[in-house]
Amino acid sequence: MYSQTYTDLGTPAVDTPKLVTLEIDGTSVSVPEGTSLMRAAALTGRQVPKLCATDTMKAFGSCRLCLVEIEGRRGYPASCTTLVADGLKVRTESPKLSQLRRHVMELYLSDHPSDCATKFATTRCELHDMAEKLGVTESRYAPYGSTGKNHQHSVKDDSNPYFTFDQSACIVCSRCVRACDEIQGTFALTIQGRGFNSKVSASQNDPFLASECVSCGACVEACPTEALVEKTLIQIGRPERVVTTTCAYCGVGCSFNAEVKDDQVVRMAPNRNGHANHGHACVKGRFAFGYAAHPDRITTPMIRSSITEPWREVTWDEAISYAASEFKRIQAKYGRDSIGAITSSRCTNEETFLVQKLVRAAFGNNNVDTCARVCHSPTGYGLKNTIGESAGTQAFDSVMKADVIIVVGANPTDGHPVFASQMKRRLRQGAKLIVIDPREIALVRSPHIEADYHLPVRPGTNVALFNAIGHVIVTEGLTKEDYVNARCEVDSYLKWKAFVSEERNSPEATAASTGVNPELVRQAARLYATAGNGAIYYGLGVTEHSQGSTMVMAIAQLAMATGNLGREGVGVNPLRGQNNVQGSCDMGSFPHEFSAYRHVSDPATRSQFEKEWGVPLLAEPGLRIPNMFEAALDGSFKGMYVQGEDPAQSDPDTQHVTAAFAAMECVVIQDLFLNETAKYAHVFLPGSSFLEKNGTFTNAERRVSPVRKVMPARGGFEDWEVTMLLSNALGYPMHYRHPSEIMDEIARLTPTFTGFSYEKLDRLGSIQWPCNDKAPEGTPTMHVDEFVRGKGKFFVTEFVPTNERATRRYPLLLTTGRKLSQYNVGAQTRRTANVAWAAADVLEIHPHDAEVRGIKTGDLVGLTSRSGDIVLPADVTDRVRPGVVYTTFHFPESGANVVTTENSDWATNCPEYKVTAVEIVRVNEPSAWQRRHREFTDEQLALLRGRETTHA
Amino acid sequence: MRVDRLVTMANDIGSFFNGEPDKNAAASSVATHLKRYWDPRMRRQIIQHYKEGGAGLDPIVRTAISLLSANN
Description:
The complex is a heterodimer.
Chain A (H helix, E strand, L loop, with lengths): L18 E6 L2 E6 L4 H7 L25 E2 L18 E3 L3 H15 L6 H4 L6 H9 L28 E3 L9 H10 L4 E4 L6 E4 L15 H5 L5 E3 H6 L4 E6 L8 E7 L2 E7 L12 H5 L14 E2 L8 E2 L2 H19 L4 E5 L5 H15 L4 E3 L6 H10 L17 E5 L3 H4 L1 H12 L3 E5 L8 E2 L2 E2 L2 E3 L6 H14 L5 H7 L2 H12 L5 H8 L3 H13 L3 E5 L1 H4 L4 H14 L9 E4 L6 H6 L6 E2 L3 E2 L3 H11 L11 H10 L4 E5 L3 H4 L3 H10 L2 E6 L11 E4 L8 E4 L4 E5 L11 H12 L8 H11 L8 H7 L2 E2 L43 E6 L25 E3 L1 H6 L7 E5 L4 E8 L7 E5 L7 H4 L16 E7 L5 H18 L7
Parallel strand pairs in A: 1-4, 14-15, 14-25, 16-17, 16-21, 17-20, 21-22, 25-26, 26-27, 31-35, 32-34
Antiparallel strand pairs in A: 1-2, 3-4, 5-8, 6-7, 9-10, 10-11, 12-13, 12-27, 18-19, 23-24, 28-29, 29-30, 31-36, 32-35, 33-34, 33-36
Helix pairs in contact in A: 2-4, 9-26, 10-26, 10-27, 11-20, 14-17, 14-18, 14-20, 17-18, 23-25
Chain B lengths: L2 H15 L5 H15 L2 H12 L7 H13 L1
């Protein structure tokens, strides 16, 4: 069922300036050439009856309801598949058309639940809407109650946790099948059988849950009857109001219409006008919102003086006063620089801006950092230094003009599924694909998609591989010299050119490091340089390395050298992991820079902030997250305010991180749940979910989208209000009445945001920064005429092997990633039915490595590195290459980050999650760390359950 | 902070800039990087370590820290 607010025009819009004029029911209309008669009629306000047609998919022409008459032509063509032509005279209503449609409708009703209207009172059945429109109330062919052969006793498929499939209500219109094919691109559904035996089938007639279905919900939304229905719709009932907001999961930033009844979300219906998602969604965004109402939510503030004591529920006043007094005490005793804060990529721009302001203005230091430190900080460094701006260069829609796409160190179908669907549409149209990844990710080979090249690079050798690609492009004369000479610093380019041309950087010479067939590297390099528009998309497989920043530079340089920046269809595009990674970085969350990436040492910028904020600000950078932990362990850092993050699970070398938290005297956590970090906290401030606040998120394409309050904050305050309370208690007054006032301040202080306001955002729906006098409605494509830094700059990207290498003791390389159904540390998705797809982290092992160790799928495997050891169930698969093992970090009890190390990117300290030398061995029980973690968790949960609740 | 960790971090920075053919420029870039991205207490500690012999520091990093020390 489509969103309640959606008006369907029947077939997709056609994008062409050439207009065709025709007459529909006596009204002259001009529409783009290629438009269907159905859509042309809809544009004149005439809704031709239909069932199989929808403007989200290509016309199909199966339901035979949308027949029309055309003057001078015989028969009754389907208006969905018949295109407009100059001078046509079309009739959408006539006695004959009405008769034909009524007969067709009677046939449909002959095998449809007679009690549909009452049984499914909460849904909208287009079949019944159409029957009512046509005045059909019963069927002559098999009237309601008939014992004729039908599908009314079919068994319902309830296997999927989020929706049901009821064949009795299915009219076999194929909308679900086409949605799976055309919109999602999974091709999991088909129509099985013929004639009366035709039925919608998932995979090989499997239950939906057991099939290849990825539960994106496109089929459910496309279904015109109640055959595919969300369970929440059945359970809660018809929504009463709709609020348009933005998803809080990955960096795609899908727009949704939250459909609500009595402050309960009934459905998250993707917004057809959403600029990032165009009406599509994934299993997380569409379905996994139940965590916001999970019983684990903590909605009352709590304090304790030691982590061995029970929590004590207190009023907001007492919690805030306690936190502020502790921070003041610590600063008085240990110095101004002894406390700091972490902003969250899951919180809004306004909230992260406020936390960094709190640190700089109220704490009086620059010890603020954000979780982007551990994911995309190298993107900031690498892109800023080469092209001048720390952001992706394109809009997502740009991919539809790409001729060749490189996906490196990213797994879009799992990490950014809605964008992956768009990319797959372009690939099915014929764009070429190069995948560079140690694993055979789904894009390498899936229905109707096959990568032209998969370069299975050995973890830790990306830079060597990109130098080799550069070598081929330079030595074979495939660079765009005119472009480079006009737009780049030529001296730096010549240095780079000479460097990559050296024989030691050739594919043949680097193969020993990268493990990639040199001939494949040469072919892939030629394809990227010569296929037309070349677009690069990358993820954490690029950044989370000791040479993460070098690799980002290498990517940008390859794009510059081939002229692939500054127009649609090309570009360098970091796929951001969390929903607001881009925004949290933009808002000045890093310890060395203010908003818009301006260094704290710049006097003009600092003076602007000092004037606005009314306090002197430091000109020196503060501590980064890993530096804060180091300082905590040496006794010089004693207090931390963490808003909406969980470093004790997400950051590397867990035992080091938890030791640091244990060494602090006041840890203040603001979150929805008692997460891993909260177990080390002294103050717990209830956070608000994305459904409970106003603000904005910025996605991976620099698109700022509105987050709008769907229901009241369960804890009483939105997150920005809590930061404000803390600041006021610390003696630095903040008095915002609404996040729009914070955005106004951001606009006053941030050159790339000077044109922003909530009024403009609401009017345009979303805005891609920069938004200022030069680009009042935003900037879809950056670096069009020149790079933001002026001339593009090249660097010599020497390959420096990581210290984390396979050895006799640790012969395998562990790399980590994520699953489609889970998100980051899993705090949200683990508290939803998404666990039906993934209820634990597993260790992927190549069959060869498994066989020599006697390991089979399902065995418990001990995984040991120089940092620690954990135990995981094995999944023996050839998705990973020999010598490489892979796992995820969604479940805290797994402790994936117990084994990752302190190795980090040279420029930014982004951890090297993607390379850890390990050994594996079959075992029978959890590791020592896992046992300690279980005991500690039990203790902490007991302290939570035993909390004093006297204040209430 | 653990000085060995600071030494490793500084050497990692040096490894990148070491690709620059002009070694004076390379050392200067390392010094600038430390100045722009390292908290003052970390800089003080690495300078102190350098003054105490600088065990473990790569040559380019030594040069860079001497520049940093002079500028401080």
